[in-house]
Design a protein that fits this description.
The chain is an alpha/beta fold. Helix content is 12%, strand content 29%. This is Cyclase family protein.
């Protein structure tokens, strides 16, 4: 059915997992009808890179574009969910078999989506994009890359270099996707980060709608 959108965002909540060193997430009530106030007003305390979020070039590139200036077509439009078998890292030799094209939006579905969002404890050994794969994607001039945990770079890898390789190539990044319920293949993608002036990143709501690859229609 044409309405079969899948929410691939993670739910924001107090105490949820964050990247080590990032601000913890606290959601409280500045005003509450339960306390006698006329309305309920939530107070959100979190880093810009909490849960499902997008990275802007300003995150790792001095003078880079802020998240408030993201082109709308960067994260809205056709995309492809690419399954990754390697349980350590995404490598060029595995990507070769998927014939990634210039301008594609690619979302990597790895072993992460099977388990990392089941706990509020940070998972150190998650599948990430290797430096070589980041360079591979940059050379193919993809439009956007999506990762199914909190970073495209590994906890024990050079995450700075991996981010810089992608962002310097003009590739926009979604991190913190949960693709567990999404089959590999073509999808429609809608992912909109909060519009923060000069922001290095922002939380986002991300939705995908699988397509019938044979008919080219929504199923």
């Amino acid at each position: 059915m044409a309405s079969d959108w899948i929410d691939v965002s993670v739910t924001l909540k107090t105490g949820m997992v964050t990247w080590p060193g990032d601000p913890p997430v606290r959601i409280s009530h500045a005003q509450s009808m339960e306390r006698g106030d006329a309305s309920t007003v939530s107070l959100l305390e979190m880093g810009a890179h909490t849960g499902t979020h997008m990275d802007a070039p300003a995150h790792f590139v001095r003078g880079g574009t802020g998240i408030g200036d993201i082109p709308l077509d960067a994260s809205i439009g056709p995309a492809r969910v690419i399954p990754i078998r390697d349980r350590t890292s995404i490598e060029p030799d595995e990507l070769e078999g998927h014939s990634i094209r210039r301008g594609e939006r690619v979302l990597f579905k790895t072993h992460n989506s099977d388990h990392v969002w089941d706990t509020d404890r940070f998972v150190e050994e998650f599948v990430y994009i290797s430096e070589a794969a980041a360079q591979y994607l940059a050379e193919r001039q993809v439009r956007l890359v999506g990762a199914d945990y909190l970073s495209v770079g590994g906890f024990h890898a050079d995450g700075v270099k991996i981010h810089q390789t992608l962002l310097n190539a003009g590739i926009w990044i979604i991190e913190g996707l949960n693709l567990k319920q999404v089959p590999p293949g073509e999808v429609d993608l809608v992912c909109l980060p909060l519009k923060i002036l000069g922001g290095d990143g922002a939380p986002a709501r991300a939705l995908v709608r699988p397509l019938d690859r044979a008919a080219g229609e929504v199923r």
